[in-house]
Amino acid sequence: MTLATPVLHTARLRLRPFTDTDADPLFALHSNACAMRYWDSPPWRERTRADRFIAMCRKMADEGTGARVAIDRASDGAFVGWCGLTGWNPDYRSASLGYCLADAVWGHGYATEAAHALLRWAFDTLNLNRVQAETDTRNEASARVLEKIGFVREGTLRKDCVVNGDVSDSWVFGLLRREWQPSAVPVPAR
């Protein structure tokens, strides 16, 4: 079963399927050590990783296991990152949320805005009951993004990742359908 990757619009962003032309900005994002500081893998060194990532996005849509979208700023069309729902399980009505944005746009509320839009689509289209997200416990900004869109911190996975050679903990967040507030549009930070 395929899952059509959506095109979504917010006040300041456009979320859309990845194209081959996204490989260069995607590589720039994932090769940036600052942006990958709390990621569970080191920054990319080969541009072919971007091509593989885009191919995996298409495969995920073709297999119906999730949707990853590129995030463009509406004002100038600049690629600022991506957001995705992976591991969609229609039997359990669950999926996992993830996002990655360029450090140059941190603090502008884009992650909150993009994640909220994708969740609205997912709850309506995929009939989700639960969405889960994880973040490194040192990444307080990401935790705030999740809390702003209604996620509840449910626990800590102790020493579950190695980030840049450091063993780290992760927080697990969950959002249930009954807690979801689709009309609660996040207010931009700036």
Highlighted features:
190 residues, alpha+beta, eight-stranded mixed β-sheet, 4 helices, 26% helix, 33% strand, globular
Percent of residues in helices comes to: 25-40%
Which class of secondary structure composition applies to the elements?
alpha+beta
Task: Determine the strand fraction and express it as a percent band.
Answer: 25-35%
Distance N terminus to C terminus?
A: 40 Å
Main-sheet strand order equals 1-2-3-4-5-6-8-7
Number of helices: 4
Radius of gyration from the CA trace?
A: 16 Å
Number of strands: 8
Major β-sheet annotation: 8 strands, mixed
Order of helices and strands: EEHHEEEHEHEE
Layout: helices, strands, pairs:
Blueprint: E1 8-9, E2 13-17, H1 23-30, H2 48-63, E3 67-73, E4 79-89, E5 94-101, H3 110-125, E6 130-136, H4 140-148, E7 152-163, E8 166-176
Parallel strand pairs: 5-6
Antiparallel strand pairs: 1-2, 2-3, 3-4, 4-5, 6-8, 7-8
Descriptive account of the structure:
By secondary structure, the protein is an alpha+beta fold. The protein has four helices and eight strands, in the order ββααβββαβαββ. It has helices spanning 23-30, 48-63, 110-125, 140-148, and strands at 8-9, 13-17, 67-73, 79-89, 94-101, 130-136, 152-163, 166-176. Strands 1-2-3-4-5-6-8-7 form an eight-stranded mixed sheet, with helices on both faces. The chain is globular, with a radius of gyration of 16 Å. The model has no long low-confidence stretch (mean pLDDT 93).
